[in-house]
Amino acid sequence: MSRTTAWREGPETMGPRAPRLPAGGQRGRGTLVATHRDPSRPGRGRRWLALVAAALLLLTGCGSGATGDGGSGPQPAGSSGGTGAAGGGTITIGINADPPNLDPAMSSALVDRYVQNSIFDKLYDLDENLQVVPELAESLPEISDDGKVYTIKLRQGVTFHDGTPVDADAVVFNLKRYLDPDSARYSELSAVERVEKVDDYTVRIVLKQPYSPLLYTLTDRAGMIASPKAIQEKGDQFAQHPVGSGPFMFESRIKGDQIVLVKNPNYWKEGLPKADKIVWKVVTDDNVKVVNLKAGQLDLIDTVPAQALADLRSNPNLKVDIGPGLGFQGIYLNTQQAPFDNPHLRRAVDLAIDRATLVRVVFQETADPGYGPFPPSSPAAAASGEPPQRDLDAVKKALEQGGHPDGFRFTLKTATGPVTQQVAQVIKDMLADAGIEMEIQQVEFGSLLDDTDNGNFQAAALGWSGRPDPDGNIYPWLYTDGSQNDSRYSNPEVDRLLDRARQVLDMDQRVELYRQVMEQVHRDAPYIYLYYPKNVKAYSAKVQGFVNYPDGIIRTENLTKAP
After folding, report:
1. Which of 41, 149, 465, 478 meets the CB 3.0–4.6 Å disulfide criterion with 327?
2. Neighbours of 43 (CB within 10 A)
């Protein structure tokens, strides 16, 4: 999965972030706000409560007939309510950011994956219980006894949207492309030694050493197979004209507004897709998305503000679905730039935040307090650890150890959005109680990704949509030069443990290794884990076939819309 914008990949989730290219790859308990308010700063507790009231007021003006302010709300696209020959109609989906890159080799955002999943088939996919199932592969792979050779047999008769065959040559071409160090997939496949064609519909992947996450890795972008012909013809422009073999074909795009996909009439899954057209409508304000869903201008929205849940649930024309998620949200601290090159100051920030209160104030039932990379749905959940109780005396001690007994100042960069602003403000007030001054700087999501990739920040609010295998939530973030390690964190012992966990097949042994990693990481605090977003989707009662998968990806092939 991908990075998400500050507080954006859950309820106003942190949007998927663009990974930095490698140099070579509930449960916290908390107490009421008032019990943690510093008596020397009366009124802080009231300020937090005022934020709750403000959040509720955000939605009071959202009448069902409005379209948002300044024309920012989505307008009907194409034949939004119409039906095609198969009666599937057009499904218009509101998403919280403009997908940065639709090329699987370079993509790093969750919103990219929404669209890509409709355009590209993968070697394998996940079912709604996160079990691996074959897609372009006709069966699960044959794995050698030493765990280093995977032999994959492909379905025959599948073609790309341009009519060329999906065969072993195409799969080898794509996997070799992902193995290029310039690819965003490089670190995910760094254990691969070589990929080779066995016959026209058989591929062999040979690993340098056993790599337990490989099969799950092939259920995501590293397993997406694009048309080699289109890649070679389009070159750097392939992301603007993506060609896969999936249920829908790319038709058009208006940057910052919408992406239109049309039904693949030659799709290999009989009877699918059911809809005639999918329109991905970019609406960055969650409250505007709610308004337009109620007005019938959107059929499904990817995120829902917690304060809107009761209103949506009371509407007989709408449905709300809350399911478990795989990701986390938090704050990068730049360990190579003052003030956070000082580990004591990083620890002070970590100890000053009351995660349970943050979730209760902003997210209610749509998130869980978090203290690590593994949410409750992860098989490695126990390794994350329990969030520490907020202790201002411990914060003061950390500040003294860091040489700043009277506190310090820093700037937090976040993406734009009302919920993003609210989360940042709650954290700002919590840190102020400890004498730490935090300035909030909101920037456009793409700029935020660029800034973190280039080290142009002190602190940045970005999270991760999550992966079904625990490795995907921890290795890229904490390994030296990992693709998501924008904190620039490096610890040789952490690297050793993470490498070992990749080679162990037994999950209990892996969890113990991750537990040891997190003990060290909690001491070093390069990244402040805050909460685990749940997958919250809302949609029209006319939409049928929607399933809320834990990976957060909206599967479109079974969607249909009643007249």
Report:
1. 465
2. 10
Rounded mean pLDDT of 408-417? 94
The answer to whether 246 and 71 are in contact (CB under 8 A) is no
DSSP label at 370?
-
CA-to-CA distance for 529 and 373, rounded, in angstroms?
Answer: 7
Round to whole Å and give the CA distance between 400 and 398.
Answer: 5
385 vs 46, more confident: 385
104-120 tens-digit pLDDT? 999 988 899 999 999 99
Dist CA 305 CA 59 (whole Å):
9
3-state SS assignment for residue 337: coil
DSSP conformation class of 221: G
Four-point Cα dihedral 494, 500, 504, 507, nearest 10: -10
Compute and round to an integer the Cα radius of gyration of the chain.
23
316-349 b/e (C-beta count within 10 Å ≥ 16 → b): eebbbebebbbbbbbbbbbbeeebbebbbbbbbb
Q: Which two tokens stand for residue 317?
A: 């024309």
Domains of the chain plus CATH, in order, are 3-31+331-535 (3.10.105.10), 90-104+235-322+537-561 (3.40.190.10), 121-232 (3.90.76.10)
User: With 0-12 CB in 10 A as exposed, 13-18 as middle and 19+ as buried, what is 480?
Assistant: middle
Q: What is the pLDDT of residue 37?
A: 28
Q: What are 10-26's pLDDT values in tens digits?
A: 322 333 333 333 332 32
Angle, in degrees to the nearest 10, between helices 355-362 and 418-433: 150
Nearest to 526, CA basis, from 374, 398, 340, 388: 340
Residue 38, pLDDT score: 31
Cα(12)–Cα(375) distance, integer angstroms: 17
Measured over the CA atoms of residue 232, residue 235, residue 241 and residue 247, the dihedral's sign is: positive
Q: Could you tell me if 545 and 561 are in contact, meaning their C-beta atoms sit under 8 angstroms apart?
A: no
Q: Which candidate, 58, 57, 37, places its Cα nearest to that of 46?
A: 37
Per DSSP, the residues of 410-451 read EEEEEESSHHHHHHHHHHHHHHHHTT-EEEEEEE-HHHHHHH
φ, ψ (nearest 5 deg) of residue 333:
-115, 125
CB distance 17 to 109 below 8 Å: yes
For residue 418, what pLDDT is reported? Answer: 82
Q: DSSP 3-state assignment of 320?
A: strand
Residue 107 neighbours by CB under 8 Å, 6+ apart: 2, 99, 100, 101, 113, 116, 184, 221
Give pLDDT tens digits for 472-481: 999 999 999 9
Residue 481 φ/ψ region, left for φ over 0, alpha for ψ in the -120 to 50 degree band, beta for the rest = left
